[in-house]
Write a structure and sequence with these properties.
Length: 656
């Protein structure tokens, strides 16, 4: 069965703009709304992943495609204007976008695909019914870093014509070739400029009016027997690959690749919404061109459109994106790549676009690295891989015990881990606007110490597995566990403190961070306390689309996530729902209630309507904390997709 998701725009009003996205395995992508012009700075038909110092680059913002009928009428496809052809249907077929337009008595289909591993986008138009005379295509461009505001000064280029091919070049970027294959195709160099309004940028308080340049237009005949095929190719020689793929060739090759992805996936993930999310998961696993020594390395893009590869997100998403999808070898490459970048006992928090070096301001990403290594070893039983990583893991533990950057250090009095410095946000609750750290959480944070215990317990397990002395790690793990249960349990609240020994004392805010004291493979919390914790979390934090980041009873609770950067980041972890937390909740619930897998399945099913919203066929980053739980942030987020898949497979394999 072909994984397909069908949207009928006229019959289903959306709560938020519906957007599509396809990716090329390098971090590049093509994306837009299902109908209408771009509304984000990131919307474009060719966003290329280029080597440093460029990074991901907007090259072709939009295509204006106009159908000319034999009676002289003409219809624009997907511009939002009154003269538009009617969009009857949008669908994802194998995760690839297909549009069906009605233009008078003519039915037009448009398909889009990117070549895997190359900065190339192909589009294909077909007449399915009625009669059409010709198709004209005008590309609009604003070459710039993909995250740069839309009012950036344009880098107008030079235009060359080669038959039915336009080539646009500018001094700072590789040339872009626009090649039309159709009946009597021709290219015309008639340069134009215009300005476009981006509604989403205006909503966020950012510049919303931006210039665009068109180098010319392409024209060809279009009838039932002769379609039109457009190739947008960034002449980035370093990307390699085949130069003579047609859109049909590219479509066939990409579908075959996607079929193989499903064939390798966990048995529970090969059909229905789960299969769609396996295809969405593929977009995040990339060969990172923003590192000079990328070669055979792999990484994970944290979310589209604006996130690059983040250490924390990578480690959390690794199992769902790779191990459950039959890509264990790529999982090892990802971990080996991050291991090479360990500094002072820390893995990078992130690798910024266009930069080779990482930023290290994180207290938890390195501890999640232990968890990710543990999942790879448990899945593959590859002891050679474990042996190769053990020196790095041992070095990390030593740095944490002695103390490393950002105030990250084991307290010698109790073995717990503390972290924090003024002006820094080191946990996953990391929102910061200029000098304002929204949730600093300095002190001993609950999930940091759950991860610390899990890491030390894993070290004891691995040393035993490899025939090494595990006693020091067993002793430290026992010490951490005793101190954790003594210090974090809040008897009067019936759940765990979020932070202890902080500048303001102990923080009793009800947040989802305490989930990890139960959900991790080595759970640090006394099982007798699990039912009370889980009851509090289900009653106060669980929503139909994930977990709230703060209880509605808290005075700092924010029910909505919108507005300018200050408003958005001020609510990011103050109530806003995070989809990825559904799996830690599912794990912890099944550990606490082993016979209640049906409840977990119901929780997961409640999230599926979201696949028709926002990023079609994927799961977004965050949601408003209150109904109707509007989707916000990234339209497609790595750990949101990965953790839903992991929770679904967990129900299938339920063994608690």
């Amino acid at each position: 069965m072909i994984p397909t998701r069908i949207i009928h725009p006229s019959s289903e009003p959306a709560q938020a703009p519906r957007e599509w996205l396809i990716a090329n395995g390098l971090g590049g992508y093509a994306t837009g709304t299902i109908a209408g012009p771009p509304i984000r700075r990131y919307h474009g038909w060719l966003v290329a992943a280029l080597p440093p110092p460029l990074g991901r680059t907007m090259l072709v913002n939009r295509i204006e495609d106009i159908v000319h009928l034999g009676d002289g009428r003409q219809f624009s496809l997907g511009t939002g204007a009154d003269s538009d052809g009617t969009l009857l249907e949008f669908r994802l077929e194998w995760g690839l976008p297909v549009w069906l337009f009605q233009c008078g008595d003519c039915l037009i289909e448009r398909r889009l695909v990117m070549e895997y591993g190359r900065n190339v986008t192909h589009a294909r138009w077909r007449v399915l019914a009625g009669h059409c005379r010709s198709l004209s295509i005008r590309p609009w461009m604003q070459a710039r870093p993909h995250g740069m505001p839309v009012n950036a000064a344009p880098a107008w280029g030079e235009t060359a014509i080669y038959g039915a091919e336009l080539e646009a070049s500018s001094p700072d970027y590789p040339p872009v070739r626009m090649i039309l294959d159709g009946l009597d195709g021709e290219a015309v160099a008639d340069s134009l400029t215009t300005s476009l309004f981006y509604a989403n940028e205006a909503e966020g308080g950012d510049p919303s009016q931006g210039p665009l340049w068109s180098p010319g237009h392409l024209l060809c005949g279009l009838d039932r027997d002769h379609g039109a095929e457009l190739t947008l190719r960034c002449d980035d020689a370093a990307a390699g690959g085949c130069d003579d793929f047609s859109p049909d060739d590219a479509w066939i090759a990409e579908i075959a690749r996607r079929q193989s992805l499903l064939a390798r996936a966990h048995p529970s993930l090969r059909q229905g919404a789960a299969a769609e999310l396996v295809l969405a998961a593929d977009s995040f696993v990339v060969t990172p061109r923003h590192r000079l020594a990328a070669g055979a390395s792999r990484s994970i893009m944290a979310g589209y459109h604006w996130f690059a590869d983040w250490g924390r997100d990578t480690m959390i998403a690794l199992e769902g994106l790779t191990l459950l999808t039959g890509r264990a070898d790529e999982a090892k490459l990802i971990l080996q790549g991050f291991a090479q970048h360990v500094r002072d006992g820390l893995i990078p928090n992130m690798f910024p676009d266009g930069h080779e070096d990482g930023l290290y301001n994180t207290a938890d990403a390195t501890l999640w690295f232990f968890h990710a290594v543990g999942r790879v070893v448990a899945t593959t039983h590859d002891l050679d891989f474990l042996r190769a990583q053990l020196p790095v893991l041992t070095d990390i533990v030593g740095h944490h015990q002695a103390g490393t950057r950002f105030g990250i250090a084991m307290d010698p009095a109790d073995g717990l881990l503390r972290q924090g410095e003024d002006g820094l946000q080191l946990t996953w609750m990391d929102a910061k606007v200029e000098d304002w750290v929204v949730t600093p959480r300095r002190g001993k944070a609950v999930e940091i110490n759950a991860l610390w215990y899990n890491a030390i317990a894993l070290m004891a397990e691995w040393h035993t597995l490899l025939g090494l002395d595990a006693n020091p790690y067993r002793a430290l793990a026992a010490r951490i566990r005793a101190a954790f249960n003594r210090r974090f349990w809040a008897e009067s609240l019936g759940y765990l403190f979020d932070v202890v020994d902080g500048p303001g004392g102990d923080d009793g805010s009800l947040r989802p961070n305490q989930l990890f004291a139960i959900s991790l493979p080595h759970a640090v919390l006394d099982p007798a306390r699990w039912p009370m914790v889980m009851a509090a979390l289900r009653d106060h934090l669980l929503s139909p689309v994930g977990m709230r980041s703060l209880s509605p009873d808290h005075p700092a609770y924010k029910p909505h996530f919108f507005g300018d950067r200050w408003a958005r980041d001020g609510s990011y972890h103050q109530g806003t729902v995070w989809a990825w937390l559904i799996c830690p909740f599912a794990e912890a619930w099944l550990k606490t209630h082993p016979d209640d897998a049906d409840q977990v399945k119901a929780d997961l099913h409640a999230m599926l309507p979201h696949l028709d919203q926002f990023g079609i066929g994927s799961i977004g980053e965050v949601f408003d904390a209150e109904p109707p739980h509007l989707p916000r942030g990234c339209i497609s987020q790595a750990w949101s997709v990965a953790e839903w898949l992991r929770a679904w497979a967990l129900c299938y394999d339920h063994k608690y």
